[in-house]
Design goal:
The complex is a heterodimer of chains A (about 400) and B (about 425).
Chain A (H helix, E strand, L loop, with lengths): L1 H8 L7 H20 L3 H22 L4 H32 L15 H18 L8 H7 L4 H25 L6 H25 L3 H21 L3 H28 L10 H4 L1 H15 L5 H15 L3 H27 L17 H13 L5 H14 L5
Helix pairs in contact in A: 1-2, 1-15, 2-3, 2-7, 3-4, 3-7, 4-5, 4-6, 5-7, 6-9, 7-9, 7-10, 8-9, 8-14, 9-10, 9-13, 9-14, 10-12, 10-13, 10-15, 10-16, 12-14, 12-15, 13-14
Chain B lengths: L2 H21 L4 H27 L5 E8 L2 E6 L2 H27 L5 H19 L4 H19 L5 H33 L16 H14 L11 H4 L5 H10 L1 H17 L7 H24 L3 H21 L3 H26 L16 H4 L1 H15 L5 H15 L3 H4 L8
Antiparallel strand pairs in B: 1-2
The chains are: A mainly alpha (about 400), B mainly alpha (about 425).
Chain lengths: ~400, ~425
């Protein structure tokens, strides 16, 4: 991602490029901090750092009209509301359980269960908004729709993934708590299903590759949320694998879109002739979203369905199948355009040598998707992470 | 050559063939020789494997372990060897036919066409020799993705529309129905390999068995079972070499092989628990066979007529599998061979006309037997086999189907093999 971002920063005007670089690093640092913070206040600080940096990045990446700046403003407003809710939620939790670290959340002495549930729910809802989980994702299309390629890449890969991981972390801490678990699981389940359905429908109807990727990410995020809602080590591992798959697919699609020089679906027509490497990346991303076997996306779906069937959550397994079916439609459309259509107009091939900066990003995404053939290291890592997250789960 | 090497070769050879055809696409002669040579190597490996099976040899190769305790593996077994022999042997003839057809019809992007035919062959071989359900599913998906460009080959709006139908129906069925069935089976039986006698026997109650059977039969839409048969007439818009691959040499036969593998190696005795679903699906198959025959009779376009005719024959394979008896399985396997031989001959003959400007409608074929006597003699023989006229292979397959139906006291089903006689 950083290599790709480095290439895309060159698209920005020279006077803002250093600020964009710094903000990109701030986004990464903020989400990393949120994942490492020991308590809710630390998580809040990391999340806000990342979010505000992302808003700045979107504003800097906007092309010369008001639409992009409007997107940044909507992102700021939505994020502000979410931050307020998150802070309120953290405060309610503190009041109900006396604070403590995330690791001790399941063991905390809860004096007021209602307050605790409300507090944790507000925190999770705020994180869900920042992870672009439907129906809280309305800021996303405006934020990425009219910007240069850098913002969608950073938001889509780092931002959404970071938020999903933070949400997973907080949910994993809350689910084992006897007073919280059932309510949190129910809430995450409802959000997950809604996200799968809404994201899939919007992705199918999208005519812009970046928006399609964003909405596909919404649907995949919903699947990850459903896995986490299971509350078991298998569910957490499945969620982590799906988040990895989402990142790889998003990187492939967004990197391919950036290399192709256009974001509308019609710009993909005949791309296989003009930019073979970008076409391969887009194909790999589309196949992963479909859940085609031997891709990371398939691995995530399989683990999720396994975990859902094991917990008798048949409806969650059905949601995973529905997400895959939707992926067939919108992913298949991409592959058809790339390989089986001719460009309507002569498209100028961008021979800018700095385009090669995107190649490592594309190669990394292809490798990540090809991990489906030898996923043992990833699965082992996910299992270890899940067991750490679920310490104390039944 | 050892059986393991032949097993690897029968899948790797067409993959290499696909790559080489693209790389060596000029001059056209080199492309055609490469295509034929690849098909020849594949056929040779298939012969060796059939011989190895007859000798009782065992071979297994594991390629990867994509899931815990689940391998991507291929194993030598009689049904797979039979299917491979049919696909490989007829594929050799088809390679010659393709080389001639692309020149005569001045087909666009002939190297691409040949490459995807080779990829489709590779996926078919992988499915035929799959050692477990997961490998079969992977190969099945690969077959869909490899054959879809054949339907879209011409690149015009009609081809794209047909390709969308093809991909949508097959992928939706495999992901929406076959995948849940597979996961459910793994949840019940744990990681396992295909095993004669099945793995679900004694592990499932009637309701589960019925639900699973329904999911599997409908999920394997490559058998062209209604209502998931729309992909088959859609594929008729492809170039003739592609139609031969899809309808005779790869997709339809693998659908039949798949249903047999599921019935014999997954269900086994559990088919006796799924009586309700079995009978209901037999009715669907019967309606499909009769309907396909009637629709075929109504079509003037030869491609569509042949597509529906082949559909009816393919459904007879499903019928044999659903009869849930050893005779039924044997009859179904025989039917796979008979249909592949007859369909490939019919399609290759129908597409071969003077000057490459082939007639579209059946009445336009009048008198062509005098101009191309050998070609249409083959057409006549294949037609006779397709309708089950002795002494051709189709007759014996149908006879065994009748016997199988009678052996399980389904007299009404015994009349079904007689229906697609158009």
């Amino acid at each position: 991602m950083l290599t790709g971002a480095g290439g895309l920063i060159k698209e920005l005007p020279a006077r803002v490029a250093p600020f964009a670089s710094a903000l990109t690093l701030c986004v990464s640092a903020g989400w990393s901090g949120a994942l490492l913070a020991p308590n809710l206040i630390g998580v809040f600080a990391g999340v806000e750092t990342a979010w505000l940096a992302a808003v700045g990045l979107v504003a800097l990446s906007a092309v010369r009209d008001n639409a992009g700046l409007n997107g940044a403003f909507r992102m700021l407003a939505a994020g502000g509301a979410a931050s307020a809710l998150m802070l309120l939620g953290a405060g309610l939790w503190w009041r109900a359980a006396g604070g403590g670290t995330l690791a001790m959340m399941s063991l905390a002495q809860i004096d007021a269960p209602g307050l605790a549930i409300a507090g944790v729910s507000l925190v999770l809802a705020a994180l869900a908004l920042k992870a672009a989980i439907a129906p809280l994702h309305l800021w996303l299309p405006a934020a990425i729709g009219r910007t240069r390629a850098l913002a969608p890449l950073v938001l889509g890969v780092v931002g959404v993934l970071g938020a999903l991981m933070a949400l997973t972390r907080v949910a994993a801490a809350a689910l084992p708590a006897p007073d919280l678990g059932a309510a949190v699981a129910a809430g995450l389940g409802v959000l997950g299903v809604a996200s799968v359905v809404i994201g899939s429908v919007q992705a199918i109807g999208s005519t812009n590759l970046i928006r399609l990727t964003a909405y596909a990410g919404v649907a995949q995020g919903g699947c990850a949320l459903l896995s986490v809602a299971l509350g078991s080590p298998a569910g957490f591992a499945a969620g982590l694998v799906q988040i990895a798959a989402l990142g790889a697919a998003a990187l492939a699609l967004l990197g391919g879109a950036a290399a192709s020089g256009g974001s509308s679906l019609s710009a993909l027509d005949g791309l296989a002739r003009r930019a073979p490497l970008a076409s391969v990346a887009i194909t790999a991303g589309a196949l992963s979203l479909m859940g085609a076997p031997l891709t990371l996306g398939f691995l995530g779906r399989w683990r999720m369905i396994e975990a859902s069937v094991g917990a008798d959550w048949w409806w969650a397994a059905a949601a995973a199948i529905a997400a895959s079916l939707a992926g067939v439609f919108y992913g298949g459309r991409l592959i058809e355009r790339v390989y089986f259509r001719r460009a309507a107009e002569a498209q100028e091939i961008n021979r800018d040598p700095w385009r090669f900066a995107l190649t490592p990003a594309l190669a990394a995404s292809i490798v990540a998707i090809g991990v489906g053939l030898a996923p043992a290291p990833l699965l082992n890592a996910a299992t270890v992470a899940a067991s750490m997250l679920s310490r104390g789960a039944p | 050559m050892s059986a393991e090497l032949a097993l690897a070769g029968v899948i790797a050879a067409p993959l290499l063939q696909a790559l080489l055809v693209i790389v060596l696409s000029r001059p056209p002669g080199l492309r055609d020789v490469t295509h034929f040579a690849g098909a020849a190597v594949t056929a040779l490996c298939a012969v060796l494997l059939l011989n190895a099976t007859a000798q009782g040899e065992v071979a297994r190769i594991a390629v990867a372990r994509p899931l815990p305790n689940v391998e991507l593996a291929f194993a030598l077994e009689p049904l797979g060897a039979l299917a491979a022999m049919v696909i490989g042997g007829l594929g050799l003839l088809h390679a010659l036919h393709t080389a001639g057809m692309v020149r005569a019809a001045k087909e666009k992007a002939p190297a691409r066409l040949m490459a995807f035919i080779a990829l489709t062959t590779a996926a078919s071989m992988a499915a035929a020799f799959s050692a477990n359900l997961f490998t079969f599913f992977v190969a099945y998906q690969a077959l869909i993705l490899a054959s879809f460009p054949l339907v879209a080959h011409r690149g015009d709006e009609e081809a794209r529309k047909s390709a969308r139908t093809y991909l949508a129906v097959l992928l939706a069925a495999s992901i929406g129905l076959l995948l849940p069935a597979m996961v459910w089976t793994y949840a019940i039986a744990g990681p396992h390999e295909f095993r004669a006698g099945g793995v679900l026997g004694g592990r499932v109650d009637a309701m589960t068995a019925n639900a699973l059977l329904t999911l599997y039969v409908l999920g394997l839409a490559m058998t062209a079972i209604p209502p998931l048969h729309r992909w088959l007439p859609a594929s008729s818009n492809a170039p003739f070499p592609a139609i031969v691959t899809i309808q005779a040499l790869a997709v339809l036969p693998i659908g039949g092989v798949g249903i047999l593998k599921v019935a014999a190696f997954e269900f086994g005795a559990a088919l006796n628990e799924a009586v309700i679903a079995g009978r209901a699906l037999l009715v669907v198959v019967g309606v499909g066979m009769c309907g396909a025959a009637l629709i075929a009779l109504s079509k003037r376009d030869v491609r569509e007529r042949l597509a529906y005719s082949v559909m009816g024959q393919s459904l007879a394979v499903v019928m044999g599998a659903l009869l849930a008896s050893p005779i039924g399985f044997f009859a179904a396997a025989l039917q796979v061979v008979a249909v592949a031989c007859a369909a490939s001959t019919l399609l290759m003959a129908a597409g071969t006309t003077p000057g490459g400007d082939w007639p579209r409608n059946a009445p336009d074929y009048a008198g062509l037997g005098r101009v191309m006597p050998w070609t249409f003699a083959g057409f006549a023989l294949a037609s006779a086999s397709m309708i089950g006229m002795p002494p051709f292979s189709g007759a014996w397959a149908k006879l065994w189907l009748l016997t199988a139906a009678a052996s399980v006291d389904l007299v009404w089903a015994a009349g079904l093999p007689a229906s697609p006689r158009c």
